[in-house]
What we know:
The complex is a heterotrimer of chains A (300), B (421) and C (243).
Chain A: H1 2-8, H2 31-46, E1 52-53, H3 67-76, E2 82-87, H4 94-106, E3 111-112, E4 121-125, E5 138-142, H5 156-164, H6 169-182, E6 193-195, E7 199-201, E8 220-225, E9 230-234, E10 240-242, E11 270-274, E12 280-284, H7 287-296
Parallel strand pairs in A: 2-3, 2-4, 4-5, 5-8
Antiparallel strand pairs in A: 1-9, 6-7, 6-10, 8-9, 11-12
Chain B: H1 9-32, H2 37-44, H3 46-56, H4 61-70, H5 75-86, E1 104-109, H6 136-140, H7 148-152, H8 189-195, H9 225-233, H10 237-248, E2 258-272, E3 279-295, E4 312-320, H11 324-345, H12 356-362, H13 365-373, H14 380-390, H15 393-403
Antiparallel strand pairs in B: 1-2, 2-3, 3-4
Chain C: E1 3-4, H1 9-15, E2 34-35, H2 41-55, E3 61-62, H3 74-83, E4 89-92, H4 103-112, E5 115-116, E6 124-126, H5 132-137, E7 151-155, E8 159-160, E9 168-173, E10 182-185, H6 190-199, E11 208-212, E12 217-221, E13 226-230, E14 241-242
Parallel strand pairs in C: 4-5, 4-6, 6-7, 7-11
Antiparallel strand pairs in C: 1-2, 3-12, 8-10, 9-10, 9-13, 11-12, 13-14
Helix pairs in contact in C: 2-3
Amino acid sequence: MNEAVVSEIPHDASRTQSGTHSGYSYAFLDELTKKSVRRAILKAVAVPGYQVPFGSTELPIARGWGTGGLQVTLSLIGPGDVLKVIDQGSDDSVNAVNIRQLVELTAPGVDTTAATEEATIIQTRHRIPEAPLHADQIMVFQVPLPEPLRVVERRESETRRMHAEADYGRIWVALYEDVVQHGRITRSAGYPVVVNGRHVMTPSPIPKWDVPRLHQAPFLSLFGAGREKRIYAVPPLTDVVPLAFDDYPFAIEDFDGAHCARCGSDDTFLVEVPQPDGSSVMSCSDESWCEARRTERGQS
Amino acid sequence: MGYTPVKGGADAVRAAAELTRSSSSQLIADALGERSTLDHVQAHLGAAVDRIMGEGGLFAPDLAAVAITQAEGDMDEAALLLRAYRSTLPRLGYTQPIQGRDMRVTRRISAAFKDIPGGQLLGRTRDYTHRLLDFSLLDNGGASTRGQGHAETTVPPLDGHADDHRPDATVTADASDGAGFTWPPFPKVSDTLRDIGSIAPLPEQSPEETPFDITRESLRFPVPRSAWLQSMARGETAAMVCLAYSNLRGYGYADHGTIGEVRVGSLPVKILHPVTGVAVTIGSFEATECEMFGPEGDAPVTGAKGRLLPAFGLSYGLVIGRNERKAIAMSILDSALQAGELASIDGGEVAPSNDQEMVLSHIDGIESTGFVEHLKLPHYVTFGSQIRTQMSPRRDVMLAAERTLAGITPEVATERGTGDE
Amino acid sequence: MAIEHVPTRSSFAGIASLGRHDLPTGGALLPREVIRFDPVGDTQSTFRVILSAMAHPGSVRQLPVACAGAPLNEWIAAVLLTLLDHETTLHVGLPATDGVGHPLAQYVMVRTGARAADARVADIVVGTGADGDLLGSLQRGTLAYPDTGASLVVPVGSLGEDGSGDGLRLQISGPGVPVGHSFLASDIEPSWVARRTEVVAGYPVGVDIYLVDGRGRIVCLPRSSSLGVLETETDGKSPSEVH
């Protein structure tokens, strides 16, 4: 039976990498898949902000739950790397835990951490850590919908043409109409940006708060959309400018002077936490940053 | 006074996994006593096994039974398990092309003709049973329903099993088995129509030099026919039925085709021997094939149903395992996409079932269920950002000057902002 | 450090094309060959260096592992073994020594399953910094799919960032490049640089270039970079750019 023959062949018999989850390749993905992801990454870096189509294999995690970011991370990672995984800024989020465990299970020689400054690779869903990042770190963003023009055009064949011809009129019109209707631009997380003065890109659903961090950043940003099968990138020291108007400029979220209820900071992205008594408190979304602040202030 | 965030994500994940493991095996073991769960699934849930093999894109009945058991019958979850496993298997190569004619048929019908060479072989089907719940299953575990399969077949079953899912270890080139029984030939109905000139002859050469491989490349629209056939071959049954149904009801070119033939049976797997270069059969798998005759592709037909046209287009469905409704839906959608290709040349709006992007982007069950369910993931940062952006419009504008980058208009070159780095 | 080569998935893919492609049979014929380039660990570490070089164009990076015993340039072989597999095509546009084909091409194709192709359609091409015609003939992708543009690997004598040395001083700017950055590269002709400018003028279509020297140093030139030859100061004139 066909199936029996296949199962006798070791999936990756590279015995120089010992101790992996039995029968699976180093970092789970087979070498063919890693190479195709790596080639896509290199082309993505060569054309900043442009979405490179790639084969995108299935993983033992549901589509829509991070298979793109994970394929990027698994194609990068090797012994000596230190991986941080966050979701909404939290290392402890169940999805971040699940992803981190898959890497721990299949990539011996890789350490994991919650401390941003120790990480060499940071896989994230929808946030950039508050800590300043440096040139040796790589941010890997999980992306649900990689096409920023999808809100104005549902067909992929047409959005491809719009990017090809830099025909971005319709998204500008959509922003203009937003201003006309609401008195200001109401786009929030996942705000569209122009990269390298050429391609309009979605930075993934990060809050507006994080968007300025991408502009002329010292670090490399890679974006993986597994279900939609696209990879894109922003190299370091690259212009990333949000779409806005002179008289209606881009503005980050305003927390009305609120402070984090745990560490007291007023300069981080805060999230609202409803309390049992009907009130709510604000708290840092970046929990490891918050924790470090508390330690600094002798509050732990 | 201070707020303490809830911790314990890792513990929660572990506990949830434990619960699923213990409850499924516990319940099933209790219900079945000594009996093997996997035997039960294969023997009594054969249609489920076939369906998820087709949606997972992997012919492996034992593993499909494992997936169904592990997923406690959640079919989308089971298909994901199988598809995820499939992606870990090494790609050894490609088989030789095979024809539906090569199928060892266990069921074969045609709606286009009353009698066909080889006969209408009804085989094992529920189509003409009365849909009455069988309460005897409550009393004696279903022994009374077991024999039904035998009565309907006109051909002795292979190896004494009426519903054998296991592929044959050897499929011989001739049509006879060891007991001296010879299979009647089952010529293709489409071949008959080709002989009398009612449908176009098969092309000399395949229109595509190399078939597209959807497991290695992502789709770039418009895609060639091999790409949409592959996508549908492992598409989610319900999604395809939904879109095919919309087409039949009028959302799209509407004079529905006629099933020329549906055949169910086992197809051989052939490869070229690496040393001798000769084609050899290394195994077989169960499959369902549907060929449908529809209006010729170059013009939408508005005639009455059943009106015989001088020439027919052919549309095709092929799925792993026994899944007739999916194979039929696939051939309807193949016809719709062929028609859609021609319509799009005129630049007109097409109905969902005629639209390549609409159909192919939404029929993969692994993708669609994953994304729909991903809404359960935390979205409190995006939600918080939306809330913040709706509130405080005045402060937004006041803070803009201090804390943000200079905005741009399309014509103006960008200015460097004051980034945090 | 010798590491036993054990068959990996990519080499099985090589064996089992089973008559479909005109491929050599990949690693399966060489299962016990002792090579010095681990297909899992060394491709990963090599890729990371290549990625860093591509993200910081004009910065000189050091490749970690050479493919000892490979023809022409052991470091270029390492780069090719990292990037190629049986789904990609290769063209080695260097003079062949025996008329059959360059030994580097054979070496790499046997180990990766990559297929040979004409320069105009190949995914990955090897060519010199004097062959502007070859560079001009490579596929550049389309506006809708610029990623299908080719990658060109160029063997050079030496690469450097500071000080003086052999070759041209090249001024570079664009994404990933600090303002005013330049680097030294030998075996590059000014006419080739000019040709490259023409090839990437239609951004986002274009070709991406990997310069690799004899000591395993690598500089990447994505199509997003602007490159020009700096006149040196030695003749007493002030530096000026030549494109």
